[in-house]
Structure formats: structure tokens, C-alpha cells
Amino acid sequence: MTPAALTASEIIRAKRDGGALAPAQIEAFVGGLVDGGWGDAQVAALAMAILLRGMDRAETLVLTRAMRDSGSVLDWTQAGLPGPVLDKHSTGGVGDKVSLMLAPILAACGAVVPMISGRGLGHTGGTLDKLEALPGYRVDPGPERLRAALSAAGCAIVGAGADLAPADRRLYAIRDVTATVESLPLITASILSKKLAAGLQSLVLDVKVGNGAFASDLGAARALARSLVEVAAAAGLPARALLTDMNQVLGHSAGNALEMREAIDYLSGAEREPRLHEVTLALAAQGLQLAGLATTLAAGRAQAEQVLASGAAAARFAAMVAALGGPPDVLRDAALAPAPVCLGVVAPREGYLAGVDTRALGLVVVALGGGRRRADDRVDPRVGLARLLPLGSRVDAGCVLAQVHAADAASAAAAAQAMLAALRIEAQAPAPAPVVIETVNAA
User: What are the chain's domains?
Assistant: First the structure.
């Protein structure tokens, strides 16, 4: 391949015109992400071209491997860890806090979980932003502290770090603010490059589908799930995906500190919202079976239920938080700062909560300051939505549909108005829908 074909403009042109990129072109792009040879505008242009023109499976595999190899790749084979290295990743949704509970559940069942997580992307929340609502929690602990946390708790939820898939760090931030989040190959490469760099032995994936997910219909979600499990398998990582419903907020909260509070209440047994509980247990069962820690899905689910009931999962979470600099006894005092204003959103009429624009609710949280419009925006961990009623709830005029937690009265009022516009109240209750839809395995 000629040097001219490896320039940014020619690579962008090739994909813009619908061509398949050669491995050398993909590797040149990834190199430019890391060394700054590609400007932000060029990165955004190629991301948009990939969104519109796509990538085939071979291109996606090359991109994934190149992004994995753009930095350090962890190797746990000589670390003396007590169990198989297992992880989970979600494609993102509103109120999706499953990682906060699942990592300690898996650890309490014998897995080792070095969970490399991300920040909020578009209208969805980010696990790292939720953890940073805990004062002192370090999402960038460095390799020695990461190993110490894994030894102490069996799990550590952290960021990728400067040396782990650095190409994805830059591309992720640019995608977030250039309307290129939804690209199937870019989602696949982003997720798997970090997971492969983390040295995993198996991976379970939660692919969201619905109006609050990046995949809004079942066909798109299936395509994304197949892309993830097939590219992972081609890269040597056994993986399995669940398709789960995101046509309403998962759990009853959306917003960093509020979701952290809900996760702690879940682990301690104070409250477990049914849909959130079902997704968590289903992913736990799949992960434990995939890692060889359970012979059947039923056995894996029973193990997860047992470590929740005994408090072992909660203890693992507390040990992880303490090991990574957070509150020393997070189950007793999480030190979560409250928002200055809490406003109830009331139903304008009686009926049933029949539908919700879940993406719009995610954007309400962003507008409150709980997410980012620009890559360098600061997140207010205090704000968000809480006590959201589930679909199918019978409501009376004037009853509280949810609480808005805001920095000031004006933003609370604007959020309440936007939230009401996103909800649909009708005379008839909607048909119930399963929260776990199906399982996708590699071919």
C-alpha cells in the first residue's frame, strides 16, 4: 500500500465512499489516535463515515485488535489469582447500575473481576461517574493498587487508565460529542478493545434494546450482540450476550449518586427493584456458567442469590470501595452528597403509566448536569431522577410519578416539565414485557 493511501484524508475518503479499509489503514488510524497525528476533526470525520458506511467483521476485528494493542495488555496468568478472570459489559442504558452489584456478586461466587468501565456516553450514564459520587474513590488506581483491590475484594471497577487501550479513550470522547455513538463496529471495538486489554478469560454482555438504548429495535440489538460475541470469539475471548429491555429506566433512579444509593440498598437487601434484580441475576448466572463456576444457569442463579442473602456480595463491594480509596464503611455511610432541590413530578390525570421516552429521560439527567454535552464537561453527581414508577403503574391525578433532584429550583422545574412530556398516561395498562429477552452465543 502506498504512503498516500495511509494519510488521514485518503483513509477518510475511502470509507466515505463505502470501501473496506485495509488493515494497514486501520492501524494507521489507531496510531494517529494515540500519537496525535490525527486531529479531532479528522477523527470525527472517519467516525461519521464508519457510522454511515459501516465496517465488515474483518475490519471490525482489525480495529478491535489495533485498539487493544495501542497500549498495555494485562496478563493475569502469573498473578496467583484465586479464580477465573471474568467480566461483564453493558452497551448502555438509562439507570443501568447493574455493574455495581454484579461485580461483587461474581467475586463472592469465586470469580476475579477486573471490570474496566467507562463514563457516560450520550444520553446514558457511566459506571465510573457513578462510583466517583463516592468521596475518594479512585477509578485510576494504577497496577499495584488494582492488584491489591482484586486480592482484597475479588473485584475492582476502574477506568481503562492511560496505558490501557489509549486509542479508545480518545475515540470514545469524540464519539460522545459528535453523534457517532450508535455505530455498531465502533461500539464493538470500543467495548472489546478494553476487555481484551484487561486480560479476561470470559465475558458476559448485556445488550440493551428499546427507546433508551443505542439499539432501539430488536434486529439492531441482535446484530450488535452477534458482532460482539463473534469478534470476541475471533479474538480468543469466549463471550455470551443477553438482550435486555430498555424501554424504561432500569431500577427506579437515573443519576450518579442516586444510582449509587440504589445499588447499595440492593446489595444490603434494603430494596431490590424487580426488573433490576432479574437482569442482575440473569447476567450472574450466564457469567458463572461461562466461567466454569456453575454447571447450569439454575445453579449459577442460586449461587448469586445465596451470596446476596448471606451478605457476602455486599461485603465484597465494601472491600472494593475501601481498597480503592472510597468511604471505609460504605454500607453504613456512603457520604453521598444530596442535591439542594428535590421536586416531585405529579401526574396531570389518572390512568396507567403506559409508555415513556427513556432516551428523553436520560437527556433530562444530562440537562440537570448529571451527564456531558462536551467531552470536558464536569458532572454534578447529586442530580438526577429518583423513585420513578414502573410502566403499568396505576396513577391518580396529583400523585408523584418521580422526584427530580437538581442544583436549583429553575433547573428542577425545567426537568419536571421535560419529564412529563416524556411520559404517556392512558386509560389502559400496557401489556407486560420481559426484561430479559434472549441469549446470543457465538456461531
Answer: 3-54 (no CATH), 86-334 (3.40.1030.10), 341-426 (3.90.1170.30)
